[in-house]
Amino acid sequence: MLLDRGYPRMESLSSAHSTVDQQDTLDAYADDDLALGSAPAEWWTFETNIDSVPKLGSLFLGDHADVILRNNAYLPDGKHPRRVAAMSGNLRSRWVAVTTDEVLADG
Q: Is 107 contained in some domain?
């Protein structure tokens, strides 16, 4: 797998540093991009039916939730503690999008 060989989780292209000509500066930018791309995303969004668990009225902004992942291409299987950061949807579709943020060890 490419991740095992040091490739980042995502690809990106930036010309923001096109005027830099110092190799050590370019290497530092590349190291920063590699660190950013090799960590799981901070914000995760998933959709759930309002008639399923968790029921829409039982989940509020700021609540802690354990998101259980299986067979995700980029993130490890298991239970991941998250915090509800946003919710959106409508009654016509009966689906709600839940956006979560990471839960920091100290908070």
A: no
